[in-house]
Structure formats: structure tokens, C-alpha cells
């Protein structure tokens, strides 16, 4: 399960950060996850609940912001959302599109106790 390994690394990072600042507890973890990463928010929350036990993040609140997939056409500059699974052509002019957002996979901030 992809999310389980991911949560493991997130908690390791968060614990390292907490130790660096001499905190013995983490209050909150805020993540930004792009829609295009394929990461399932619920699976991530579930993994977090399983892995956090016994770590500095045991009582931490996990907030996940899902960043929607946005694409922009390289020809007509139209910006549009998810139009279909892997549609990388403009719905207006069929030009090639680039991803503007939706690939994020980051810890936005951590609140230490
Ligand atoms: Zn276009």
C-alpha cells in the first residue's frame, strides 16, 4: 500500500523536525496532496492512525488539503480542471496541455507542542 509507506516517511520527517526543535509532541500536521498523485486521502488518514501510535505525532491532528488537477493549454492558454482520466489535450482546440497544479506532495506546516 503506497499510502502506508508515504505516511511512514512523513512521520519520520515530522519526528526529526520535532526533535530538532526540542519538542516532545506534535500538535498538527498539514499536508497538501495533488489530485494527480493518485494518493487517496482516506487511505492516508487511515495509515496515519495506524502508524502514529507511539510516535511524537501520536496525538497530532492531520489535515489534508487535496489540490485539484488543473491543466493549461499551450496553444490557447485555457485553464481547465480534470476532464477525464488522462486527457492531455485541450477540450477547446486539441492542443497539448501542461499540468499547472495537482502534483503536490508536501508537508505545508507542522505545529509543535
Ligand atoms: Zn487550447
Entry keywords:
113 residues, alpha+beta, hypothetical protein PF0899 fold, 3-stranded mixed β-sheet, 3-stranded antiparallel β-sheet, 2 helices, 6 strands, binds zinc ion
Q: Strand order across the biggest sheet?
A: 2-1-6
Assembly form of the protein: single chain
Strand content: 25-35%
What form results from the Cα inertia axes? elongated
Largest sheet: 3 strands, mixed
The CATH architecture assignment of the domain at 2-68 and 102-112 turns out to be: 2-Layer Sandwich
Total DSSP helices: 2
Q: What helical percentage do the residues reach? A: 25-40%
The number of strands is 6
- CATH fold assignment of the domain at 2-68 and 102-112: hypothetical protein PF0899 fold
Taking pLDDT < 50 over at least 5 consecutive residues as the criterion, the unreliable ranges are none
What is the gyration radius calculated from CA atoms?
Answer: 18 Å
What small-molecule ligands were found? Answer: zinc ion
The succession of helices and strands, N to C, reads HEHEEEEE
Average pLDDT over all residues: 92
N-to-C span: 30 Å
Query: Given the helix and strand composition, which structural class is it?
Result: alpha+beta
Specify the CATH class of the domain at 2-68 and 102-112: Alpha Beta
Amino acid at each position: 500500500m503506497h499510502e502506508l509507506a508515504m505516511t511512514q516517511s512523513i512521520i519520520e520527517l515530522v519526528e526529526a523536525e520535532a526533535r530538532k526543535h526540542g519538542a516532545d509532541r506534535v500538535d498538527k500536521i498539514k499536508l497538501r496532496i495533488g489530485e494527480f498523485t493518485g494518493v487517496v486521502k482516506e487511505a492516508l488518514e487511515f495509515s496515519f492512525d495506524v502508524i502514529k501510535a507511539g510516535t511524537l505525532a501520536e496525538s497530532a491532528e492531520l489535515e489534508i488539503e487535496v489540490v485539484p488537477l488543473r491543466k493549461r493549454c499551450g496553444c490557447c492558454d485555457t485553464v481547465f480542471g480534470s476532464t477525464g482520466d488522462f486527457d492531455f489535450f485541450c477540450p477547446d482546440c486539441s492542443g497539448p496541455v501542461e499540468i499547472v497544479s495537482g502534483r503536490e506532495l508536501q508537508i505545508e506546516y507542522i505545529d509543535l507542542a
